[in-house]
Amino acid sequence: MIVLRKLVADDAPAYWALRLESVEREPRAFGQTPEEQRLVTLDETTAQICGPEGFLLGVFDADTLVAHVRFARPARSKERHKGYIHGVYVTASHRGQGLARKLIAAVIAEMREDPTMEQLLLAVAIGNLPARATYTGLGFVGFGIEPRALRAGDEYIDEEHMILRLR
Predict the structure, then answer these.
(1) Would you state the torsion angle of the CA atoms of residues 126, 99, 40, 146, taken in this order, to the nearest 10 degrees?
(2) Whether residue 15 has pLDDT greater than 90
(3) Which residues make Cβ contacts (< 8 Å) with residue 148, sequence separation at least 6?
(4) Once rounded to an integer, what is the mean pLDDT over residues 21-49?
(5) What percent of the residues of the chain are helix, what percent strand, and what percent coil, each to the nearest 5?
(6) Which of 127, 122, 126, 125 lies closest to 138, judged by CA?
(7) DSSP H/E element including 132
(8) Within 10 Å of residue 74's Cβ, how many Cβ atoms?
(9) Distances in Å between the alpha carbon of 56 and those of 48, 49, 84, 148?
(10) Please, are residues 69 and 103 in contact by the beta-carbon 8 Å criterion?
């Protein structure tokens, strides 16, 4: 049974492991390296899950975490009108089922309920056409390209910055 819900402290080990999988299998999509993720403690992961300025959503197939997305809102008052979507990942065995779309749609729905939230932002690797199609299908539009946003070994990855205006 597929369930989408916010992660809680007890989900830290599962999230840590899936995050490691994401940076190992998709080095062009994430700014963190596997070596950096391995240095993250479970306490730090729990703090990220339970932090006051955002949340993580996950998709569970039975008891297994198979997808995640992180929402973060800046703490500074001049930036509180916007939020960021980070770390969208669906494990290979569950791709093609619309899970990333469901995760992001859930973030959008929650943020539409917050009258102080005006816009959502994200960045996507230029070559990641399935992710870009998901984002544009949900109403995000590109507003700029960051050349060489990431460097994976000897390869540079350009990122498109995208926005969804909620109000």
Answers:
(1) 20
(2) yes
(3) 156, 157, 158
(4) 92
(5) 35, 35, 30
(6) 122
(7) helix 129-137
(8) 14
(9) 8, 6, 12, 27
(10) yes
SS3 52: coil
What digits encode the pLDDT tens for the residues 141-151?
Answer: 999 999 999 99
Report pLDDT digits (tens) over 83-139. Answer: 999 999 999 999 999 999 999 999 999 999 999 999 999 999 999 999 999 999 999
What are the strands of the beta sheet with 54-61, ordered from one edge?
A: 2-6, 54-61, 64-72, 82-90, 119-125, 155-165, 141-152
Give the CATH number, domain containing residue 36. Answer: 3.40.630.30
Cα(45)–Cα(38) distance, integer angstroms = 11
Alpha carbon distance 87, 19 (integer Å): 8
Q: If you average pLDDT over every residue of the chain, what do you get?
A: 95
d(Cα 71, Cα 88) in Å, to the nearest integer? 10
Domain span at residue 20 reads 2-165
What is the domain count for the chain?
A: 1
